[in-house]
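> @MW can you paste both from yesterday?
MW: sure, first one:
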Amino acid sequence: MKKLLLIASIAVAGITVNAQETRFGVKAGYSLSTIKVDEAQDDLEARSTDPSHTFYIGGLVEHKFGDKFGVQGEVLYSPLGGKEDYNVSEGQLYFREKSKLTFGTLLIPVSAKYFITENMSVSLGASFGVILSAKQKTVIDAGLGLPGLDIEGDDDVDIKNDVNTLNIAPFLGAEYMLENGLFFDARYNYGISDLSKSDGKVTNSFLQVGVGFKFGGN
């Protein structure tokens, strides 16, 4: 009887160990990044925003607890940001300022995963972004509508001192992995941190769609 209990205990322990799996991997993909300016601004009607098309790249570690649940941590780099267009005119007078904001960001996403099937999972978590650099490219076009009195120019300036360092973005995502470790994933990150140190709140949200590979191993 004691031998049977010992054998059963060893078998259960073996199942528990096998049910836990840690895998490392790499990933890269496309990001659609947008900025949102506080709606309380008086000149909101003169402003509009457009997304920036950019990329991300980095590595990950995934740990599964049994067949259904797991956690995943990542370290990624992405030049996030967005575009803003300020345009006003009255008669022959006009002023247009087009700005592109680029935040060189180190992303640390942490998520809980639920495996719908062995290959398909959904994730819920948050991305903690550390802004390493911040630049603003501005193009100005202004004038009185008269020959010789129009102004055109562009400028590229470092705005790191005007930007808060931390960008927290909760996200919801999905992933599909093939048997050989190749996977495809997508997630939407909703920025909640105010990135502006001056008046007017600025947030950064981004969609990520990419591909990666996980190396097997317990």
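MW: second:
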Amino acid sequence: MSALNEDEFENILSIQNKCTRLNLNENIYGTFAEIGAGQETVRHFFRAGNPKGTIAKTLSAYDKDFSDAIYGLDPQNRYVTVERLKRMIDYEAELIEQRLSRKKYPDKLFFSYANTVATIDWAKKYKGHGWLGIKFQREPKQAYSEIILHVQFHENNASQQQISLGIMGVNLIYAAFYQSDDPKELIKKLYDHLSKDKIEIDSINFKGPVFKNVDNRLMSLELVKNGITEAVMFSPEGNNILPANVLYKKHILTLRGSFRPVTNLNLNMFLSARNLFLNQENVDPDKTVIIFEMTLNNLKSEGDNEINEKDFLDRADLLCASGQTVMISNFQEYYKVVEYFAQHTKKELGLVMGVDNLIDIFNERYYRHLSGGILEAFGKLFFKSLKVYLYPIKDEKTGEIITSKTLKVHPRVKELYKFFVDNGKVIDIEDYDEKSLDIHPRQVYEMILEGNHEWEKMVPGLTAKMIKEKNMFSKEKASHS
């Protein structure tokens, strides 16, 4: 290990000291491949003491033809992609294994670090983004582990973005070797000497023997919980995916809920709204993405600020098993969801909600922080092509079915409400399942906890099967992890 005493570094975590500690570790050795923003990460290692201790090779295949010659052609002629990054770290890790004999270096911990980025353009139209990754060993001859992340730049100057990239690159390499026992803490350490308003991580994936017990969906959750990003997504396979890639130029239909668990009510809302959305003249089914969204508040138990991770994974498993793309967000208000989607597409948007959710939307107290109040919020919410697909509710006292036409709102917002309904922004779902109107998700969850098997009639068959087989939402699992 390092020639310096471990305790000397306990509270010395400057970027230079991180590089020095790595450089002085006689076993850590690897390559740096950086494309698009100079060699900002390796620069720190050259400036620290004993760079030859860590740097086997460094390169910047800035020219596209050189990059293609080394790492292969990209089918879409794109360079700032996760596929390109993976090819870079795989190629360089394989190369170092080929060129450095294990007989000569039996104790070496090899790594390959890479980034491929595009910083802000001269017109400042595009802020810039990029991929960073490291493939590394924690034990000699161990199978490689990986950390791959995507960042969005928020600074308005290319040189400032390069500085932030270099700092995060050092933090990533250091964390891989010294802080990877606790991936949650590792995520926080990526921001040493950085502020979240400069550079945003919106996707991160861990892989390999060091992270064999890590569920990447929980890592997504950490990004939102820590205020690093506002929304994350994961695929039906459970992998973290980049929201920008999923949403780019797509028609988007989203259903928000707690999904604890998915009920027949949720399913019918989704299927009915999907049919209406896809039947719109301008909507291409092949370019449509459907999102099941949970907010941080959805994930918290009533009166509790903590999130039960096992409870979250139970819900995630059920949604993934039914083939859904899941989004976790920090957007309490619906208009913020719409603003977020509008960053990525100009195509049609749809929100699926029940009448009770619509009542909340027209509650003025949610918009007191906006200078324009509810009018400003609704200007953002009901932009251009957005439509609300409204599922009715049943009045428990009278049995009346309440739709957009029979809903009574506060007199102060009555005309505003009427304007949006009359202009086709709110569409009633008419082919609803009347039986599902008697399903209350909170009661279904309580039935599961109480062992009342009536809940099985209120959820889809696959959901019921999984809940029973995996003992989901049990009292035993109700404690925080």
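> thanks! Residues 104 and 471 are 52 Å apart (CA to CA).
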